[in-house]
Protein 1
Amino acid sequence: MIEKWFELTPKAPASCWQTCAGDFQKSLDWHLLEFGPHAGIKNCVKALNELYRAEPSLYEHSFSPEGFEWIDTQDRENSVVIYARKGLKPADSVVVILNLTPVPRPDYRVGVLSEGDRSEVFNSDATDFGGSGVSNPNAVSTENQQWHGRPQSVRLNLPPLGAVVLKKK
């Protein structure tokens, strides 16, 4: 999904963007939402808004260090960044994994704090968003292998130029 956005933005001349920008007497080009990439962006923003409302960890500690923790910022070779967002209850925590390259990362290992299956609650590469559909349709199970300084880990498929959000079931 993010890849589609990058494909559109650097190549788009000014005339391709919102042609009525600055003209308060003209309506926005809402009809563009009928077309693939535009509809995909709209669907993605809708899903992100729904995720934000559904996951307290994304807003409860927004302005406090207790709500955020880096898990891995050192994977320069794969350009993957991982962090956790924490809510008031430990059960509300989510892990966000960002793959910042156009290369899918199958079987990528991520360290987690506790045992238990994780479900994908958001994937920016969903076909509904115009993405390629690289996902984790089934829950990923923890393995008793330390990773990223955590006692357990999960293996999952990372989409190209994508974000995956995992939550413990």
Note: Residues 36-54 form the longest helix (19 residues).
Protein 2
Amino acid sequence: MTTELTYASTSTSTSEIRNEDKKIIQHVELPEVINELSITLRLNIQNHNPDWACVFHKGEDVHEARTPALWLTPKNSAPHPRFSVTNNWNEGINSVGSGLSLNRWYHLAYTLSDSEKRLDFYIDGKWIGFHSVQQVQTQQIIFNHEPLYIGADKIRSGFTGQIGYNKL
């Protein structure tokens, strides 16, 4: 069963993501995820952050639960999609490309499948990268019961720009 969370546009802010676009969605408010999920959203970066910036992250602690998670790398805003598996809380793609250009809308898609043991990442409908679980017999993707943070989490600030998503 695939669960799909779709995020697509409302913000017109040209500074840091608006507070009304930052969300904390409790686990019980989200669709049930059994072994697959996909998240789509629109993103427009106005300035590159000097530190890591959170786009979305499901989990209370970045060192324990990262399924699903998407951060932007410091200084160039390259997507950094992550997830957690048995015995490793930090799996994923280190960075996608050389970074997102400023003041341009991107459509991002993050798909994750425990049955296929892989994460796929798309930008503007193009398959950009993937990460496969290495120990397919012994490792499972961990879908946690923690809140989903959109736009910022407890550890990392948000990015400077706009995010578009449908309200859940």
Note: Confidence is low (pLDDT under 50) at residues 1-15.
Protein 3
Amino acid sequence: MQVFNLPHVPSLLLLQDIRRELNIEPFVQVDGTNTDEGVVKRAVVTEPCPRCRNPQLEYYTKQLRSADEGQTVFYECPKCKHKFSVNT
């Protein structure tokens, strides 16, 4: 682990501020967030939407529970905007 001794930096910094100062990109950008390059695209799976039966859903994953349990998959239909999640 690399430790930086930055005496000129205030003691309370946000993670975004540290990334900006060190010119580090976030590891993952999800949820359709805007960047300088435009909107980040989500992954697509060929599964029908339970509401409108659109044949494809956008999805992303997050680890919300402890590390020894599965991740949570968040789905959104690009057509009707129906959202739901599944614990895997």
Note: The domain at 31-87 is CATH 2.20.25.10 (N-terminal domain of TfIIb).
